[in-house]
Amino acid sequence: MPLLFRDFYLITPISLFANLVVVPLAFFILAIALLSLIAAPVWPWFSLVLNSANWSLGKMVLALVQLFAQTPGGHFYIAHPHRPEKLVAKITVLDVGAGAAVHLRTRQADWLFDCGSARNYQRTIRPYLHAVGMNRLTGIVLTHSDSFHIAGALPLLDDLAPARWIDNPSPDKSTVHNRLRQRFQERRISPADLAQNDRFQLSPEITAIILHPPRGLTTAKADDQAYVIRLLVKPSTAVLFMSDSGEATEQRLLQSGADLRSDVLVKGQHQSGRSGSDAFIAAVQPKLIVATAADFPWHERIKEEWAANLRAHGTQLFRQDETGAVTLRFWPGSWEARTYMTAEIFRSVSR
């Protein structure tokens, strides 16, 4: 158990009972295997009988182990011991290349904004969630139908069983999204149908406002339908999640007259390769921008002239091809951002 806790953040009280059943069966499997080796030169037919018996016992052991593993409360994940932090919220922007996954933790809740591709979920997101002691999600927000953003939702549904689902209702032709919606129907899950100007509470301290898309919006590209969400963190901090929105969405937001001002802007890259226009950045007035970045495909690359322009205007940029994951910690009246790979820290007093 101590080794499992150290290496896998896992506590398994059910193993105490499982071993009472599995260990004797394992002894019989070894004994029968040894007897089969002895009998093989003299009675090959008897050796085959013994091997068949062992095959049945082996299947029985696997079935019992799976049964014990599914026992409610039989195992759970727990974070490594650490100094308690009196935070209003903690946001971790994971580095999953062209995809996206943002974990928001408060005193009462754990939310996930997107969950990466199926591969990134298995290799990065699930191990991270286990490492922070995650056993069940309060809720998940799926920003749009791009498989790099939502394909991990299928295994996540079984692993963490989110209590609340917010799924972008915009029409699309995504096969991954269709499979997920079929799974919702099978599990009788009814995702919240939210659109522009709708609000929902992530915790008593955090309110989320959906700024885009308006209900019924149809576009040629899924990126132009992605949720744009502004988080209001009490008492006076704002975080803007842009997902993979591009200049078309930015223009709609500017024309809508919505309050875009935010201390932190978290953005992906649009399929066109164009996002983060000067007019939009001027309206948001971010102190820090956390931007996903990858070498492939080409539109996921951050243009050097855009990054240089931000630096010239005094805006801090954390590009994740250089920084890796970024953790944001919020206290009443202040916040800080820390990068994983470079250990860079950006601190600011909120508005």
Q: Would you write up a description of this structure?
A:
This protein is an alpha/beta fold. The protein has 2 domains: 2-69; 82-349, Metallo-beta-lactamase, Chain A (4-Layer Sandwich). Helices cover 36% and strands 23% of the residues. It has 11 helices and 17 strands. The strands form 3 sheets. An 8-stranded mixed β-sheet has the order 7-6-5-4-3-15-16-17, with no helix packed on it. Strands 8-9-10-11-12-13-14 form a 7-stranded mixed β-sheet. α2 runs antiparallel to α3 (44-69). 34% of the residues are buried.
List keywords for this structure.
351 residues, single chain, alpha/beta, Metallo-beta-lactamase, Chain A, 7-stranded mixed beta sheet
Topology, please?
Elements: H1 2-8, E1 10-11, H2 15-39, H3 44-69, E2 76-77, E3 89-93, E4 102-105, E5 110-113, H4 118-131, E6 139-142, H5 147-150, H6 153-160, E7 164-167, H7 175-187, E8 199-203, E9 206-212, E10 228-233, E11 237-243, H8 247-256, E12 264-267, H9 278-284, E13 288-291, H10 304-312, E14 316-319, H11 320-323, E15 326-331, E16 334-339, E17 345-349
Helix pairs in contact: 2-3
What's this, in brief?
This protein has 351 residues and is of the alpha/beta class. The chain has two domains: 2-69; 82-349, Ribonuclease Z/Hydroxyacylglutathione hydrolase-like (Metallo-beta-lactamase, Chain A). The protein contains eleven helices and 17 strands.
What's the average pLDDT? 93
Strand order of the largest sheet: 7-6-5-4-3-15-16-17
Indicate the radius of gyration in whole angstroms: 25 Å
CATH topology of the largest domain: Metallo-beta-lactamase, Chain A
User: Number of helical segments?
Assistant: 11
| CATH superfamily label of the largest domain | Ribonuclease Z/Hydroxyacylglutathione hydrolase-like
Measured between the Cα atoms of the first and last residue, the distance is 47 Å
Poorly predicted runs of 5 or more residues: none
